[in-house]
Amino acid sequence: TEPDWTRQDWVAFQGASYFRAIGADGQYGLSARGILIDAAVAGLPEEFPDFREFYIEQQPGSTPDTPVTICALLDGPSVTGAYRFRITRGLDRSKGVIMEIEARVFLRKSVSRLGLIPLTSMFWYGEYGKGRMQDWRPEVHDSDGLAMWAGSGERIWRPINNPPRVMANSFFSPSVKGFGLMQRERDFQQYQDDGVFYEKRASAWIEPIGDWGEGAVTLIELPTNDEIHDNIVAFWVPQGPAQAGARYDIAYKLSWVKDCPVPPIAASFIATRIGAGGIPGQPRPKDVVKIVCDFDGLGMEGLARGPDVSVTASTSRGTVSNSSVYPVVGTDYWRAMFDLDFSMLAETDDEAIDLRMFVEAKGEAKTETWLGQLFPSQLRRLLAQHG
User: Nearest CA to 186 among 27, 328, 3, 308?
Assistant: First the structure.
């Protein structure tokens, strides 16, 4: 039977500056951290500051939905700081766990990469990836994408990848409105894991309290060959160098939920698949893949397949062609697809290919913006699996 929501363990501080909470399905998953210091910087070891002391505010006569206040002292060779967590688990389980966090951080030393408000997760493989040839389960991940709400108002979905080498990508977004690592795939059939229940893993959404000003959301992806490694990190990087003596005042709301708590304004992408490009029944062209992205039908009511609805796709390398978009028969969602031809790239060239795509109707964007990053070696391996 399902555990009693009001009596279940629901928040954990895990060592170093890691912490996490359960989501609406009562399941732990990804983690957050107090701070990130020099992650994935060539030639430098990552530093892991600790929450060394905790102070829990006593609230006599509290009920299950009374906020819990925890203060924590952060300490490390390069940083020190004070954090206040105001944590609420409501009686309405569907709202998950909400944390309002304030922090004041001081740098003792200059650091090469300072990450504020980091989230840490695991992604081995999803609808595609080499892990599918090594494991019996269709998908294995705690999160499947980075969602962003840019200061401009643009909604962005970046599927997570398991890259051939360590990658760090920054998405400049002054006055960002929010970002988070999401677990959008919620169908047990897509995981088939009745031991750890990946379909129940919490998503985490970060919303600034106040204006954070200039900066970027950064995503680090590390290659992994197993589900035991946390290989994904997303965090906020304020503009300017992180120098000794600098002070950072941080305030944000962190929601541990099933889905993004911000209502969507356009259709959301729910799956990304990759296969052989070209036309079925005809010889498949060398080094051409077909990228297929499913999205829900929000805002697509009254539209049908035809010239009024189109895919707008671009790539940093190679060429895109053969795009199409249509409602999937017998479902309530749509499908957008296009071919990516990377045959002009040398066999030794494995630089990243950055993709951007959205669906529009009569000049109006009808979906969030889908961003993808793939590698020629990764795509050739996938094509080899297709035979």
Answer: 27
